[in-house]
Batch of 4 targets.
Target 1
Amino acid sequence: MSVTGARPFLKPILESPGRQRRHTLPASEFRPLNPQDAISVFEIEREAFISVSGECPLHLDEVRHFLTLCPELSLGWFEQGRLVAFIIGSLWDEDRLSEGALTLHKPHGHTVHIHVLAVHRTFRQQGKGPILMWRYQQYLRCLPYVRLAVLMCEDDLVPFYKKSGFKVLGPCSITVAHLTFTEMQYAIGGHALMRRNSQF
Ligand SMILES: CC(C)(COP(=O)(O)OP(=O)(O)OC[C@H]1O[C@@H](n2cnc3c(N)ncnc32)[C@H](O)[C@@H]1OP(=O)(O)O)[C@@H](O)C(=O)NCCC(=O)NCCS
């Protein structure tokens, strides 16, 4: 049979997995990440950071480390089952960041250190970064032990985070290779709300 003749018979077979995917995978889903998501996370990081500056906020082993220790402080945005944007955080036990915050998770801390927010290249400039950050901030409000979220970013991203309600704390004491950062902070209102409600 010629290739052309075979096409009608091949077509349904080739299309059926696609159809199945559409039925089984939600169009859009937000959920905490887990260690199995580490490769997808790192692929986005590789393009977003390493190809630009040679550095990235979290290397693959660090992604796995935090997604094992504190998956509940991460949030992934999946479309048709594909990771399109994510945030990874861990707990820190001081208000300001220092070197140890890059690698440590302090389970009794009250500050969420946001290590990284990144959107897959093909999904940028669609408002996804701010939306994901907003959902993450709402989620953190439900965690009674969280008082602050802090992050370090390069100067050109300061306006971006200001729009999400972060305030500038000043230069960050951490430097990575030749890169310097501004430290920013967001106060989580959840614990105040819980205190008010607990009176009744
Ligand atoms: C930065 C990033 C998270 C923004 O997400 P996004 O979904 O593409 O954001 P949007 O394009 O919808 O932009 C929202 C606003 O941020 C601004 N913005 C987006 N990327 C920016 C950047 N790299 N630098 C400065 N401002 C930026 C936009 O101009 C826009 O401003 P506006 O509201 O005045 O129009 C995304 O571009 C990304 O993943 N970049 C690579 C990784 C990175 O740098 N992460 C942040 C450091 S951890």
Target 2
Amino acid sequence: MKKYILLVALLTIAGCKNKSNKDTNGKLKVVTTTTMITDMVQNIGGDVVEIQGLMGSGVDPHLYKASEGDVSKLFNADLVIYGGLHLEGKLVEIFEKMESQGKKTVAVADAIDKSELISSEFFASNYDPHIWFNIGFWKKITLHTTEILKEQDPEHANIFEKNGAAYIQKLDALETEIRQIIETLPADKRILVTAHDAFNYFGNAYGFEVMGLQGISTATEAGVQDVQELSNFIIEKKIKAIFVESSVPRRTIEALQSSVNSKGHDVIIGGSLYSDALGNKGTAEGTYVGMFLYNVNTIVNALK
Ligand SMILES: [Zn+2]
């Protein structure tokens, strides 16, 4: 009898352990934060994992607060994948609490060596978190995420491996294509003025000088002084176009535009760029690859 009870207890423990890695429908339950991360994990995980993205199109991760529903999604997940470097500034405490409880959380920024990151005193983590704008980084992050998924769900390791490799190929093709598009823009016109400092990795990787009206995070507003300085810069460099961002209110860039125009230089709003969130689901810009191409085409066409 005693032996029987022990066996039942062991089976129950084994059952629980199994359950902690898999959902009741047998799928690994992954919760992601930004749309860029959700898209990448979907590319690697395919339909063998269940992915829930917390943030939708047009959502600013710097300001995003978790709802009660989000908190329960996070705590019920088998695996949580987020950006890190305080990109999701208001979720940091939740992630810390989850880690202290032994929940599996992964910051994709950990795939990049700190020496490759842009240091910034303006941001809480001391590093610029907009790492998805370097496609080389995104490839490293894809490899890292593939390994994590294989660890968490070894049964589907082959699928993750195959999907991950296919996604890297897509990213390689994207990089070749955007470099060709950028080549058509004269080097002295490669100056990008946007609403907030999201594009510094993009600038470093693809040869643009980048000026953001707000700091690294949208949590800090641009002051009158910032607008004045940047408008003088635009006039001095004879810049044709500046850009709004889909996840940041237009008003700061519109204020900059009127400041420039009032000084007698015409600057247009060259379009709306996707910075911290992808476009609508089901559209080309709703994917990382489509978003990147859209941004580069918009920038190059407006600055030509
Ligand atoms: Zn940002």
Target 3
Amino acid sequence: MASSPSFPLLLFFSPLILLTVHPLHTPPLSPDASALPPPPPSCGPGQSWAVRLHARLNEEGHDMDELAHLVAVDAGLENRGQIGQLAGHYLLCRGAEEEGQRDTRGASAAGQALADHPYVAWHSQELLLSRSKRSVAFNDPKYPKQWHLHNELRAGMDINVTGVWEHNITGAGVTVVVVDDGVQHTLADIQPNYSPEGSYDLNSNDPDPMPHPDARSDNHHGTRCAGEIAAVSNNSFCAVGVAYGSRVAGIRVLDGPLTDSMEAVAFNKHYQVNDVYSCSWGPDDDGRTVDGPHPLGKAALQHGVIAGRRGFGSIFVVASGNGGQYNDNCNYDGYANSIYTVTIGAVDEYGRMPFYAEECASMLAVTFSSGGRSLRSIVTSDWSMQDGTGCTDAHTGTSAAAPLAAGMIALMLQVRACLTWRDVQHIIAYTATQYTDKLANWETNGAGFHHSHQHGFGLLNAWRLVNAAKVWVSVPFLVSYQSPVLKEDRKILAYPDQLVLSWNVTAADLKQSGMKTLEHVSVTVTMAHPHRGNVEVVLHCPSGMSSLIGARRALDSDTSGYMDWTFSTVRCWGERAEGQYSVLITDHTPGEQSKSLGTLNHWKLTLYGSSMSDEEVKQRQSLVKEAMGGQYLNSSFSLPCPPGLDIAPEKVHPLTSNSLKSLLLLGCFALFWSLYYTMEVALAHLDLRELWRGRRSRAPDGFQAVRLEEGPELELQRVVNTDTKVPVIAGDVTAYSDSGKGSPTDSD
Ligand SMILES: [Ca+2]
Ligand SMILES: [Ca+2]
Ligand SMILES: [Ca+2]
Ligand SMILES: [Ca+2]
């Protein structure tokens, strides 16, 4: 604090320093600029007067600066020059020589002199104005540590959300559901925002997704994700969620054996209540698994985007996976590959790709999470069971990234509730930001979108997402084009040679669907190879944009090749659909340059897109760019929203084993009761009544037993017998292992 006494002095003299230094260091731009030094902004509280000179003086041809000087001298003040761009307005200050002798008498004398002065039309002694920065301040003790919301250390390395909150956009009216190992909804940071209507427990088949204590004390995962999304603000407890005004629900499904049918139920659970499904889990990230949703899960994802959210479509957010250290790649993860999901990867607090992060061609965007040992992790809620305290600063992995994206999508849906599931993906592609990271191989596609396998379209930016959402008109409906299954039975050539497959999509091919521009492009392949991790598959779109859809994976020594595995890419987003597509397949098996070890049996190409022309893509790009100033958020601007479909209430499936049992019991009970009642009426006048009363007294017990069997809600039971696992949709299901417990995508 040694410098503190000199600080006010420095401030005081700074105008004089400016006055003398300025001409020396800045060559005058014009004679005018050199004549008048810039006026200092202020001369201390209560020590300045703003005056306006009579306009007629100017009209009479007087030099206003000179007159202002005369006025200042008459009032015992100093002229500090014209105020900004206001002609005839001057700032007059009490002189430096009066420092230390200032008193109110001197001040009032100056005021009186100005009041009496013939040149002065108006004057005012300036008072300090109380103005607060429009920055959000919370009393939550861990908010200062939530760098992903406001990174003071590294500018730009946060989700840029505070400006959105200042516009009172906090996710109000939107429900995000965390599909995970439960949500401890009794926590102070969760309870006020908890949505029991959107919640369910599929592991215990009851409506309450409360996590269960477990041997490893790790069923904290869902609660941590829920806190990132909707932790309550300003409650003096722990942290703040990205969408702290949204509601958060929980579907408990990861704490026990997971089946395809359970997954299917989870993806559509309460889908008129839940808007966004946050899924921070997926197949094993071991660098050799090729798996994704099975037939029922796939059907449920598809049904969710058609019927969820009154037909606008459920938004499924999935984490790209944590297998980075095993060379894993999210193109081998069917949840990430799916066109129905928003695939989100992670970057650390520097924006760099962390060791655990997976990359792929279907990555839509990235957001923040943990990094190396010395880097900060995500501060969020925690369960308070077992070792938990209700608050943690150690949430990690792509698990922590996906909920941040889900929260940002909730903010978008508040400003525009009728965004479809595809609008959300489009807006992410249009607004995610590109930046420098040495691991990112950015490429700009034919429609002007930048994409990297590591960072998708870039870093999610809440401000940009919400401003674009505000002006976004829904894209035309989804259309697709599928090539025939192309039988090849060709040898996969060894590096540096390659097997080249191509398919030309003509204008006539697209005429029926009306597709003009692309969204996802998928390639489904069946190939035989003794070590499939050595095979590399690259797709070239007509523009020449390349996607590494099948990356090499050193640990994947599987000998069965691929059975109808669908790889997908978002890298041709917005490009023209028409033209020639090529698939380049290379065998990188070391030392086998001369041999052909594998065979490509057959493949097909699927294009997804819409009738949007490339002109319209450009128009939307400039509209989004134009909206980034925030002018639409500031104004009362709003686009009309269609009402959405009237979707029938969720079907309760009557023919599950549990419900059949209940029905049977209910039937038996009804039969018994009617028999009893008939007999009682018949025997009413007989003396045997006492005997029957004895039986009747047990009836309430019987009744209660039936009530318990009925339960509060009949659920689709998980199918235990695998023989009954009938695919409800035909077609491409990859060779899959029996689904075990999905792995939460923590990095630890
Ligand atoms: Ca429960
Ligand atoms: Ca809080
Ligand atoms: Ca993975
Ligand atoms: Ca996806």
Target 4
Amino acid sequence: MKLYSYFRSSAAYRVRIALNLKQLSYEIQPVHLVKNEQLLECYQTVNPSQCVPTLVDEDQSFLQSLSILEYLEERYPAISLLPDNIVTRSKVRAFAQAIACDIHPLNNLRVLKYLQHDLSLSDEQKKHWYQHWIIEGFNSLEAQLQDSNGQFCFGTQPTFADCCLIPQVYNAKRFKIDLSAFAKIESISQHCLTLPAFFNAAPEQQPDWE
Ligand SMILES: N[C@@H](CCC(=O)N[C@@H](CS)C(=O)NCC(=O)O)C(=O)O
């Protein structure tokens, strides 16, 4: 399998965690987002949305991180990242979507660039924007984690929820957000990063890390 990825991309980080948890081997094809390689015509033919990740498996391209997680779950079900219980499964998907659909799009690189270059926001205003949407989103996530054991988001095994949470926490810390009000989020993040599948998916462990 080949994963078009950027070391700091939280959407690609989600997929790297899932591939590692499922013990699937893959090669990384770096796409340098700061150098705008996602906008190159040759990449646009791979991913018309001009973003990472893109997963290539068996000569097929798969787009959108959550859809890629669903594909991996159906194609490689041996190690499952969804709980058996149908209600918990729905909660896991809702949690993952809260990150991928509600929080992350507001703070994506192209949005930050637009705020800065087209709407002339200062660095400080841009930082406030970023922190505002993370904190608002994390309030909701923390409330959804009230039954968590502090190791994983839902139940005793990692799920899509953990695949999405850990990269989002990485982003929050990168933007110096104080997470002390989010005890469950902090605890789960610390625990997951002790596991090789999460640790090896981290930006610092990527071949394109700089
Ligand atoms: N909804 C997409 C989001 C993908 C996405 O926005 N990726 C970011 C990196 S985290 C990207 O490639 N951004 C490039 C840009 O904004 O120009 C997914 O979940 O795969």
